[in-house]
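Repro:
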Amino acid sequence: MKFDVIKLDAGKAGDIDLADDIFGLEPRADILHRVVRWQRAKAQAGTHSVLTKSEVSYSTKKIYRQKGTGGARHGSKKAPIFRHGGVYKGPTPRSHAHDLPKKFRALGLKHALSSKAATGNLVVIEEAALANAKTKDLAKAAKELGWKKVLVIDGAEVNSNFAKAAQNIEGIDVLPSMGANVYDILKRETLVITKAGVEALEARLK
């Protein structure tokens, strides 16, 4: 499908053909949901931990005699039923990551790109480059273009001046094409892709 290309100064820079099998799909929420869950589970630290009966610091002395107390028999204050005792079957450090086929992850990225195109929140720019790494210049351009919460995807490498200028602006994030992912795309209101980024994404997903 034909798509307009603009410059950072909002001027027109011709058009580009976007692959229908990448940018023209009917977005499916179930596919996007599965890929986002996979991403977030993989990123989860999994460092939650509790002390078990064998790990808590307490005296090992028998707390009272075995018989004649009229109460239950106990040998250790470390038992889970006592205050400050060990936790029974509590969480332990582990990985929350689970497998998701590579083809399905690629399909999820296609649906994320298509969802932005379908809702009119996709912008293609000629290049994301600045002569000087000045935040003021990029902030002015973003304001004129109406960018509030955007993700900019460039080609194989991100222009260093553009990346430095974007670091100080809340709401503008920059990624190379290999860093493009479903969660970051859906998290932002607007997706901005350079012509080099489009070529790199189409090469990656075909």
